[in-house]
Amino acid sequence: xxxxxxxxxxxxxxxxxxxxxxxxxxxxxxxxxxxxxxxxxxxxxxxxxxxxxxxxxxxxxxxxxxxxxxxxxxxxxxxxxxxxxxxxxxxxxxxxxxxxxxxxxxxxxxxxxxxxxxxxxxxxxxxxxxxxxxxxxxxxxxxxxxxxxxxxxxxxxxxxxxxxxxxxxxxxxxxxxxxxxxxxxxxxxxxxxxxxxxxxxxxxxxxxxxxxxxxxxxxxxxxxxxxxxxxxxxxxxxxxxxxxxxxxxxxxxxxxxxxxxxxxxxxxxxxxxxxxxxxxxxxxxxxxxxxxxxxxxxxxxxxxxxxxxxxxxxxxxxxxxxxxxxxxxxxxxxxxxxxxxxxxxxxxxxxxxxxxxxxxxxxxxxxxxxxxxxxxxxxxxxxxxxxxxxxxxxxxxxxxxxxxxxxxxxxxxxxxxxxxxxxxxxxxxxxxxxxxxxxxxxxxxxxxxxxxxxxxxxxxxxxxx
Length: 465
Fold this sequence. Notes:
By secondary structure, this protein is α+β, with helices and mostly antiparallel strands. Helix content is 32%, strand content 24%. Helix 1 crosses helix 5 (222-239), helix 11 (402-422) packs across helix 12 (427-440) and helix 11 (402-422) packs across helix 13.
C-alpha cells in the first residue's frame, strides 16, 4: 500500500511541476567578489598572460558591452523627436490625445452628451485582416485537476465636474473546470445612449478626466484549487513524514517546504494584470468635428499568454461629445457650419433663438424631472409644489389694475426662472419655461396678461428676445 501511495504522490507532484514556470539554470557555484591578492600572487597558470585584451570604445549608436545583455531581450523602444528612448509601460492599452490648441468655446452654457464610436473587428474587416480569437478547450483530466478562470475587462471612467460616466468596452470570460467549458465575450462598438449635461458658463466642468481600466486575471476556481492543494499537501506529507508535527528539528525543513509550496502555488494559480492609462483634456478638444480622444486595446493571440505571444488589436474607440444644444427642450444644435435640419446657427445666440421658437409649451410643461433615479414629476407639477406659486395666484385680484400687480408678477417670473436654474438647467431653458407657464398653465387672466406684456418681457420672456 505504501508504494501505491508514494507513486500517487509522485504523480501529483509531477503534474504540479509540469505546470509550474520553469526556472532558469543556475551555476553550480557562486563566487563572491574576491579580495585583492598579495603582490606577486596570481590565480592564472604561468602560460596565461594577465594582460586584458584591448577594448575599443563602442561605435556611435552601438551599445556598450554591459548593455548588450539588456539589448538582447525582446524589448522594443521608440524614439521621440530628440532621439531619446522610452519604454511603453502599458503595452496592451494606448491613449491618443488630440491637441488642445486653437479651440473655441462652443460648448459653454450648452448641453451635450458622450458619444463613443468604436472600430472593432466587425467595422474594420474591410480595412485590415482580422484574426479570430479561438474557443480553445482542454481535456477532462486537466480540467478536473487544474481548473482555470480567465477574464478580461476593459472599461473607462469619464468625469466632467461632478458628473461621472462608466463606459464598458470589452468583457471576456472563460471558465474551464470540472463542470466543463464556459465562454462569454462582449464587445461594445458604438455607445450614445448617455444623458445630456450642461457645460457651465463659468468653465467649472469644462475639463474631462478620463481613466481606462484593463483588468485581466487567470486563476483557478476555488473548488478545483482546493482539490489540487490537497494533492500537493498530501504529497508533501509523504516526502516529509514528520511534517504533521512541527518540532525544532523539523522546523527549518518544514519552513523551506512551505516556502517552496507557496512559490509553486503562486506561479501555478495566479496571473493578474492591470493597466490604467489616464489623461485630462479640455472638452472643446472633443468637439464632434475634431479627432476626439482615442483609446485602443490589444490582447495576446493566445489566451492568457501575456508575455510570449503576439499581440492583436481588439478595438479602437474614439470618444467625442455630441454637438452642443442651447436648450434641453429642443434638438436644435450649435453647428460648425449651417447644414442639416437641427442646425440653429453657427453661434450660441442664433441657435438659442431657434430653440426658443421651436419649443412647444405642452412639451416643456410635461417634461419629466428626476432626482437621482427617482421621478419627481413634470415641470408643471414641480412648479405647483413651490410655496411662492400658490401665494402669487392667491394674491392677484381680478379687479386689480395692471400696474398694481406688476411687482408680484415680476417676482413670480423670477421665481420660475431661478427654480429652473437651481435644477441645473441654463438661462435659455429658464426663459422657455417662464413663457410656457404663461401659455400652457391655468392662471388668472390678469397674471397671464402681465406675464405676456412687453413691460415685463425681461423678467417673464425668453432669455433672448
